[in-house]
Each structure stands twice: as structure tokens, then as C-alpha cells.
Amino acid sequence: QVQLVESGGGLVQAGGSLRLSCAASGLTFSRYVMAWFRQAPGKEREFVAAFGRRGDSTAYADSVKGRFTISRDNAKNTAYLQMNSLKPEDTANYYCAADSGSGSHIYVYNYEYWGQGTQVTVSS
């Protein structure tokens, strides 16, 4: 079956950096849009970033644009999220997601597969 496994979360001070990884298995990785979402306590899961199948398109939430970078290595079946200049408001559980469909990829309901999440906590 398809599995997405996130890693790289942790505790970091404001202004610091983390790199999240999402290792995928059980799917043809290049056929899937890969994305990161996050969910803070008491809030809905929200879109963070996505990387298209063709390698020529990325999308970012306004709140992270310029600070976060999404990338993917199809040979390694792995997606990444480089997070720089972290802020306390970035604190959340971060989820990796994958979808093979053609719909908009900023919405939770369009994604077929999800990882279990990795916690990112940013202290002030």
C-alpha cells in the first residue's frame, strides 16, 4: 500500500531553520503532486506548499512565501520542505500529501494520501 512518512520536525527558536522530508513508497512518485499542509491546535488543516508532477510549477501559501521552499527528488521518491526564518506562528503538525488528480492542489479534499505528520514547534 501507499505510505508517506514525514521526518525532520522538532523544536527550534524563532529565526531558525528546519528541513522536513517525506519518503513515499507504494506509488509511482512522478505521477503525483506532492504537498505540505499544517494544522495548529484548534485550527483547520491549511495548505503550505505544493510541487507539481512536471517539475515546472510550485505554489505557496502567502504566509510562508519567501521563507519556505518545497522540492522533490523523484529518483529518491522524496519530497522536502526547507523552512527558514521560522516564526512562532509556524508551530503546527506538518503533513505530507500526494495526489494524482487534476484538480486544484491547495485543498485538503483533493489529496488521496497522507502521512502521519511531524511536529514543528517554534519558540519565541
In the predicted model, the low-confidence regions spanning at least 5 consecutive residues are none
Number of strands: 11
Q: Would you tell me the structural class of the helices and strands?
A: mainly beta
Which percent band covers the strand fraction?
over 45%
Write down the overall geometry: globular
Over all CA atoms, what is the radius of gyration?
Answer: 13 Å
Task: Describe the overall structure.
The structure is a single chain. The chain is mostly beta strands and 124 residues long. Helices cover 0% and strands 49% of the residues. The chain contains no helices and 11 strands. The chain has strands at 3-7, 10-13, 18-25, 33-39, 46-51, 58-60, 68-73, 78-83, 92-99, 113-114, 118-123. The strands form 2 sheets. Strands 2, 4, 5, 6, 9, 10 and 11 form a 7-stranded mixed β-sheet that branches. β5 (46-51) and β6 form a beta hairpin. The protein is globular. It starts with a strand and ends with a strand. The model has no long low-confidence stretch (mean pLDDT 94).
Summarize, please.
This protein is mostly beta strands and 124 residues long. 0% of the residues lie in helices and 49% in strands.
